[in-house]
Amino acid sequence: MTAKEKPKLAMYWASSCGGCDISVLNIGDKILDVDQAFDIALWPCVADFKIKDVKGYPDGYIDLCLFNGAIRTSENEEMAHLLRQKSKVLVAFGSCASEGCIPALSNLTTKEATFKSSYLDNPSTDNPEGVLPQPVTKVPEGELHIPVFYNTVKTLDQVVPVDYVMPGCPPEPPQIWAVLEAIITGAELPAPGGAIIGAGTVAVCEECSREKHEKEIERFYRPHEIVPDPDVCLLEQGIMCMGIATRAGCGALCPEVGMRCAGCYGPLDGIVDQGANMVSAIASVVKAGSGALAGIDEEELAREIGKVMDTIEDPSGTFYRFSMAHSLLTRVRSNGDGAQDGGGR
Amino acid sequence: MSESFEPVIVGFLCNWCSYRAADLAGTARIHYAPNMRPIRVMCSARVEPQFVIKALREGADGVMIAGCHPGECHYVDGNIKALRRYELLKRMLRQWGVEEERVQLVWAAASEGIVLAAAVDRMTEELRALGPLRWGETVISGNGHEQALEEAPAAEEA
After folding, report:
1. A283 close to B (CB below 8 A)
2. Stretch B26-35: mean pLDDT
3. What is the pTM of this model?
4. ipTM of the assembly?
């Protein structure tokens, strides 16, 4: 053992799928370099640590904490506060921690509706007594506690200050390694305070090799409704590709293989609301209404354009697929139609 | 809803038609509801959906976008782009529980001060009937997040 102490690395999952952890392991044999450079202080996916171990660390003990997952329960929030206190550098790692991602799509509905879908209406769930999770349950032996399930999913930076943000669902292994390598070799990182690292600064379209022409979209197609031309821009073909409103860094993996960009790397610099930005972009590439002349029937014109927009299934869930929690409106009103029927139209 | 509720409407008026319509409504001394706060933009196409959503988030009860009639845009088809944005945004806001009356697109030519004034009057009454939106207080802060943390049990010592 060397006398010099290695810096401490932590990786934690809050409300997430585990894909971020897998993505870190996908850096391949470089993971050995990570092990050589860092001591693991907490990483539930790969090593056994207890919460009391973390509580026992002095403040700022962890040099680098990669926090993936959104804040969905009281436990997630408690861990966010704890890891902020124990970490010198806290990174919102992946789309859930930075934008809300898939868990935050439930901000398009309510906690009650989510429970109803998960525990009552789900065809594969057998729950004849309609039992729903309760934070406190009385049993003969005493009280049982589980974390409180929040109505609204939040991002990490909505709960504690974050030093860096690494977007992506998940962040791509080469990007992860580039960041870790920079830290290991002591290269200079951008100033902390929520700076985005491990991603590009242009739109996904810049990395996409598909041919792009003037777009005049007559209607939109869902992925199962069309076999896309292998060489032409997907959006041009009426497939709702989010590349134009999404930060690059992934290498345009999805559109390159014929799948629309779903927007996981989040909005570009200077854009607050990715979904609103996408609405703006879509309006420019739809054909309906082009060349309207003075005296046109205005209501008919609105109907014609509306008909094209009606071919976009679930616009909120599509445009805010990954950025709902970080959007300007954050969640739907609980008295709204969306909340009642689970967010769809 | 209390009768004293005065809705706040943020109005994005295009420089070439609708702002002039508002100007004309003023010089013609047309009486209409004082609830709209006009913001002059060069074209209705300058109004990004983000502006509308931000206004709703920051306390507006409604947003009016006003532009030249289709075919009469100073920039040829800016207002058509605004219409397309509006039609899509409308469908999205429906999912968010924002009533259709809260975001409206109005065409008002420079000579139509009376049309703009009537639209503001109508929208004010519609919003008065709907009541306040108060997105920040009721939707973002009022979701029980902080309260839930209090009732959450302290983590078990493992």
Report:
1. yes
2. 97
3. 0.91
4. 0.91
